[in-house]
Amino acid sequence: MVVTAVLNPYDRALFLSVCTKRRFLSPLNWTTPFHGVGQTIVSRSLSTGLYFPLEEVGRTVAHEAGLPDGSAACSIVAGNFAGAVNALLLSPLAAVKYRSWGDLSNPENKSVAQAAVATYERGGLRAFFTGFSATVARDMAFGAVFAWLRRELRRQFLHTDTRAGAFAADAVAAGCAAIVSSPFNYARNRQFAKQAADHHPVPTVLQSLAYFWIQFQARPTPYARLKYAQTRLMIGWGTLRVAGGMGLGQLVYAALCAAPVV
Q1: Phi, psi (5° rounding) for residue 73?
Q2: What are the start and end residues of each Solcar repeat (predicted)?
């Protein structure tokens, strides 16, 4: 919850930069940095809090199904499981959060209940599952890469008997996983942005990816294409947020698991 609250301005600025196609560091993205923080704390803290124990459960299930414990296949299955369950459980909360963030005409910070009512009034039950398919695809891709790569990094390259080594391994793995899953995150952000702008049809994942590819190909030079991809997929600022957030989240989770029960 602390990490979520501290990073809410960062998350909101990322979302608004996608919605409005502004530079991430534009002051307009930071004018109301804690708008929607209530919805964010609920969804983000649940998402981060659920991921690591779900990964452990997925690893246990994969091992009992016959996969060697600690193998690449076991880690990938565990990450897929954690990502899929997270997406299934938290998509409605994400829809409420992004509806609140995208409502630029009303800068007041609504409660979760108020934002949920507004979401229902504007789109019915379907509005709570905006971005669902993109979220599942994104979280499964992210979970598979993150769970596998962090274990490989810890084993082969880093001294993980220190907190700094563990944080470095997890942050690098999360950054790579964010890049791999970034096309699905782009599609998800476009869906939420269109939902926030009323009277605009919400594109499917394939439509969003096709739109990205057309815009990518339309750039006149290789540099312009790379720049467009980096900006739209949030490779940079977005990657840094995910890497730091997951690395810190794992440190806190491990510390709390190791803490004595009073």
Answers
A1: -65, -40
A2: 70-156
Q: How many domains does the chain have?
A: 1
Domain residues for the domain of 207 are 2-258
SS3 per-residue string spanning 137-196? HHHHHHHHHHHHHHHHHHHHCCCCCCHHHHHHHHHHHHHHHHHHHHHHHHHHHHHHHHHH
Mean pLDDT within 144-158: 86
CA separation, residue 162 to residues 61, 95, 166, 169 (Å): 29, 38, 6, 11
- Segment 221-234 shows an average pLDDT of 91
pLDDT in tens, 105-116: 454 545 667 777
What's the CA gap between 67 and 181, in Å, rounded?
A: 25
Q: For the whole prediction, is pTM greater than 0.70?
A: yes
Task: Yes or no: say if 2 and 45 are a contact pair by the CB < 8 Å rule.
Answer: no
Give φ, ψ of 26 to 5 degrees.
-60, 135
**CA 142 – CA 1 distance, rounded (Å):** 21
Token pair recorded at residue 14:
């990322």
Residues 6+ apart with CB under 8 A from 59: 69, 74, 75, 77, 78, 147
CB 35 within 8 A of CB 107: yes
**Residue 44 belongs to domain with CATH number:** 1.50.40.10
